[in-house]
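Let's practice the habit of predicting before peeking. Look at the sequence and jot down your guess about where helices and strands might fall. Then scroll down.
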Amino acid sequence: MKKLAIYIILAGVSILSRAQVAPQKYFVEFMDKNNSPYSINSPAQFLSYRAIERRQKQGIPVVENDIPVNQSYVNRLREYSVNILTRSKWLNGVTVYCLNPSVIDSILQLPFVKRVIKNSLFKNVNALKPNDKYKLEEVSLNVIDPPASLNDAGYKMNTGMNYGPSFNQVHMLNGDSLHKLGYKGEGMVIAVLDAGFSDVDILPAFDSLRLNNQILGTRDFVSPGNNVYREYEHGMEVLSCMGSNLPGQLIGTAPKASYWLLRSEDVNSEYLIEEYNWVSAAEFADSAGADIINSSLGYTVFNEISQSHTCSDMNGNTTPVTRGANIASSKGMIVVNSAGNSGASSWKCVGAPADGYNVLAIAAVDSNGIRAGFSSVGEATLRIKPNVAAMGSRTVVFSKNGSIMYNNGTSFSSPLIAGMVACLWQALPSWNNQSITRAIELSGNQVSDPDSLLGYGIPDFIKALKHVNVADKGTTPVHIFPNPFSKGFVVSFTATQKQILDLHLYNNMGVLVFSMQQQEVRVGCNELNVPYLTSIPDGMYFLQLTGKNLFMTSKLFRISN
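Done guessing? Here is the structure:
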């Protein structure tokens, strides 16, 4: 049974064989983008000014996966009487609904079709009883009224902002101190990918967002053209953790940020199509110029066991949604995602896309900073998952009845962090997404001993702001020669203390292509000799050096002789 309102557990993948013709939805993947009318040299044709500016500020080139899918291929598919639902330029294909699935055999024969992936069976949604669609986990939704005696006792904290009962979840991150400095997310854009945003257009918690035009727009990738304000309330609750501005009741972590509200999740469905919806929504967020994606969604198993993921698939770049999230990060955005609520279940491990190499996965703690038992478990070997933690047990959120309430789940710890990411990035506009993310990790209260439960722990955003080991203005003390390289290269850098570090090399899609683990670093000048890398293609790469008290990053290029 689906578990949504705290965390959604879905997933799976099944490639269609020619014999399968059950009525359903499919993802049709194309071979290429040949003969496209678009060019990477003219990105304004398919990207907004903000999207182009984000790339330019971070030194990120426009590449082929930025180009929309080939329209002539889409037109050919329509000849087979399929309905085009969503498109994905990153995964290079379209999701279609087919009333006559026997035509899939013919579609598979088209020369530009690479494969067809089954991602949803037809279901009679009207036959579902409300309790069959989803169930609430971990805690009942208790509506609370803020005690009047507490409204002035400790909640204002010299910031001029009366957080009411929501004070602790902000203060735990030292977010109130960042707010006091004037950083409340202004000028930053957060895309919220969720299951619906019930009554955000009328609830008083979002008056400030509406009056100041901070809701930039909405899109529905489940039912295109639909009104997301008449859908499920989970996204509304998530948004309240960031964008609410109700003094004495609930003030979010980024009350001055702007928001895109994107529905990618269908609470009536438990099929792979939600992963493709997510990627399409993330592509829209990128094209529209969002800086941050908050996704309080996760994908693990389907009702069809043959399509289900396993924990071994949570390896950083396997599932469609995780691949999409990594690409989103390669475009300069920061993807913040719930780690999951499976810590006390047989599944246990983080879900997709929280497993992504470049995704900031968020665990849950209670008001005392103690891990919530339901928070999903990751790993702390070659990579740290989850990355950091925030309050996800009895988090104060807004309810659909117009009052605040306590709710449980990493669905709510994630937006608390996403909002604070916006505030930190507002304060450090010249930093790239990787530097912002690493500064947050290094500010965690477990940075000296990260684990598989809370990662680097609870971050302190004032410490992140002041962190001296992350280079400002996109510069680093890393020197690479030769650059460009054709075979191998040498990394030269200076360290202020002895430690062990890891070297990671990512391609421009965020995929790890090479790593060197457990390298000893001495005080002073160090050199690391990276061996021949003749098997990787020409192009741009990102080098990361990560240690206990060290994070450095640099861009390099491979050009073969």
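How did you do? Residues 425 and 436 are 7 Å apart (CA to CA).
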